[in-house]
Amino acid sequence: MAKKQKLEDYCSVMGEGNVCQVESLVSVDERGQMVLPKDIREKAKIKAGDKLALISWERSGEFYCIVLIRAEELGDMVRDFLGPVIADSSK
């Protein structure tokens, strides 16, 4: 019989004031839908109608990580990243 894993069995990574940890485990239903738990939505201040960008990383041709970022913050991140590049190209 396989051992049922608990949330504590998964890793968390800490460093320099940042914490990356497993907050919750979610299931995907047969239609591919999943529910973000209420406590996570409250903690992240996610409300009905909010837009989230799904970002994925691949490693060796396999999906490695999926992250959700608020759409408006993604725009700010892109501007912060590309701003200096665009400024340098106009010189």
Short structural description:
The chain is α+β, with helices and mostly antiparallel strands.
Query: What is the CA-based Rg, rounded?
Result: 18 Å
Oligomer: single chain
Arrangement of strands in the largest sheet:
1-2
E-strand count: 4
Poorly predicted segments: none
Instruction: Return the structural class.
Output: alpha+beta
Largest sheet: 2 strands, antiparallel
- Which series of helices and strands comes N to C? EEHEEH
Q: How far apart, in Å, are the first and last alpha carbons?
A: 66 Å
Determine the strand fraction and express it as a percent band: 25-35%
Q: Count helical runs.
A: 2
Specify the helix fraction band: 25-40%
Tell me, rounded to a whole number, the average pLDDT: 80
**Which of globular, elongated, flat, extended, rod-shaped describes the shape?**
extended
